[in-house]
Amino acid sequence: MTPRPISGGSVGEAELRSVSDAAWSGARAKHSETPFAQAVRRLRKSATALIGVAIVAVLVLVAIFANVLAPHSPTAADQTQTSLRPSWDHPLGTDQIGRDMLSRIIHGTRISLAVGVSSVLLALFVGVPFGLIAGFYGGRVDTGIMRVMDLILAFPIYLLAIILMVMFTPTAGLIGTMKVTGAIAIVRIPIYARLVRGSVLSIKEKEYIEACRALGVRDVWILFRHVLPNCLAPIIVTTTLGIATSIIVEATLSFLGLGTQPPTPSWGWDLKANIAFIQANAWLSLFPGLAIFVTVLGFNLFGDGLRDALDPRLK
After folding, report:
1. pTM score, two decimals?
2. Which residues neighbour 167 within 8 Å (Cβ) at sequence distance 6 or greater?
3. Which burial class, exposed, middle or buried, applies to 96 when counting CB atoms under 10 A from its CB (0-12, 13-18, 19+)?
4. pLDDT in tens, 270-294
5. 94 secondary structure, DSSP code
6. Which end of the chain, N or C, is less packed with Cβ atoms under 10 Å?
């Protein structure tokens, strides 16, 4: 006689099993997410990060479509319309030589973002390899590279940037922007070198690195296949926050007359040129200052959100 299956149980027990199965399935799906997917999910839940992303996205769009958005030429001067108050024709007024402030601020977005992003990427591509080599090989190589980095870090960031720009001789146009970018990049190279070196010192002692060495894997493959990917989280966060710092340094150099030279639009230069008229025409310095403030705030909020999203302790 074939035994019949035993059935029974209350409705509540059945619902309990279904709820537990659903919870287990959700936990298993969450656990199966890649680290990148987990970071994106946490980033989307962060209101701070989303605000920063929105600000950065708007700034990028303004920089790309500056020629379309600007109502006037940023360099055209009109001596008959100097120091005008905000109006329909000039929403942010005009400066002391009749240039439209809104157009200069819009085009100044290009300079600020170009210098901020380019200088950080240049410092990244130079500092990261130095940090990888110093941390992985150690010994005299580590000592030599780090002493050079310490020598650069011995100078305050603004003082060294000023010294470099005096040596480069500030000029207008693309060449002048490249000089500012190079000066800021040199100042920031040691930051990435020391950051990556510290990460490599802990990563190279892991078991999988020892296994790669035991199998005879080449050092170059170990560095770029196993070590560097595990250093990306702090590098990404530092890069995002570093863009904001580079924008402030560029504005400071321009304010001191050592950055981008006129007639190239620059927020820092507009602050310097109009600061003497701040009592009579406060808006001339107010709007470039607000542009710097909003840009730096956007990148800082975005960087803070990335730091929280990429923090492994929040998984």
Report:
1. 0.82
2. none
3. middle
4. 888 888 777 777 778 888 999 999 9
5. B
6. N
Q: Determine the Cα–Cα distance for residues 165 and 258; give it in Å rounded to an integer.
A: 6
Give yes or no for a contact between 108 and 266, defined as CB atoms under 8 angstroms apart: yes
Task: Evaluate whether 181 touches 122 at the Cβ level (below 8 Å).
Answer: yes
Angle CA 163–168–171, to nearest 5: 120
Backbone φ and ψ of 261, nearest 5°: -95, 150
How many of the other CB atoms lie within 10 Å of CB of 42? 18
How many angstroms separate the CA atoms of 33 and 315, rounded? 11
User: Which residues are within 8 A (CB) of 158 and not within 5 positions of it... i.e. 6 or more apart?
Assistant: 249, 252
Pick the closest to residue 254 from 115, 63, 139, 146 (CA basis): 115
**Residue 69: strand, helix, or coil:** helix
Q: Looking only at Cα atoms, what is the longest distance across the chain?
A: 109
Cα(14)–Cα(205) distance, integer angstroms: 50
pLDDT digits (tens, 9 = 90+) for 196-205: 999 898 888 8
Please identify which residue in the block is written with the tokens 């693309």. Answer: 174
How many CB atoms sit inside 10 A of residue 282's CB? 11
Contact 186, 165 (CB under 8 A): no
